Amino acid sequence: MHRLRRAVLFTLLLAGLAMPGRAQAADPILMFLLGIARDMVIAHVTKPRPKQEVPLVDLELVYPGTLVEPDHIRRLIDECFAYLSPSQRGEIFAALNEALLSPRNAAVRAPMIDYFVQHALAVRAAQQRLAQMTPDEKRMIAAEFRAATTGMPPEEQEQLTMVLRQGLLPLPDDLGQLMLAALEAR
Q1: What is the pTM for the complete model shown?
Q2: pLDDT tier for residue 23 given thresholds of 50, 70 and 90
Q3: What pLDDT digit, counting tens, does each position of 52-65 carry?
Q4: Contact 18, 24 (CB under 8 A)
Q5: pLDDT exceeds cutoff 70 at 111
Q6: Cα–Cα nearest to 141, from 126, 162, 120
Q7: Which residues contact 57 (CB under 8 A, 6 or more apart)?
Q8: What string of DSSP letters covers the chain?
């Protein structure tokens, strides 16, 4: 209603400015055009606005009690754990999906998703930071790694060597190779 008043007031002001004297007020063409302009303004202001439709969530596609779809989780795993093979990422998704669909986890489903998302994004941020390191920084990290693993029992060193060989850590390939070489140099 407020817009209608403003539109009518604007039209009247326009008509007053367009017709400063009485001689122009009698011009029928000008009055006709002003009438059309007024009708257009009123029609525009009183026209019902289309409501923005809120997309409805298909509850069969989301985890119960959340708005998160399994496809979103799968995409997040693929983006944040790209260093793993497709089968390894599939295993992560299968285990997480099973846990999220379990009725006994109903009360903690949303916090589980939040926790996983936070950690997946942290892994991706760490990967990006490590990828941006200079070769000198990577060699320094490998040297620190070597110093930190010197007192490690041989069984643990062997497990760590296997993890590095399989590429299970979110490390750039060159840094992983430097760390592997540091472990095997003993």
Answers
A1: 0.62
A2: very low
A3: 666 666 767 888 88
A4: yes
A5: yes
A6: 126
A7: 67
A8: -HHHHHHHHHHHHHHHHH--SHHHHT-HHHHHHHHHHHHHHHHHHHSPPPPPPPPPP-TTTS-TTSS--HHHHHHHHHHHTTTS-HHHHHHHHHHHHHHHH-GGGGGGHHHHHHHHHHHHHHHHHHHHHHHTS-HHHHHHHHHHHHHHTTTS-HHHHHHHHHHHHHT-SS--HHHHHHHHHHHHT-
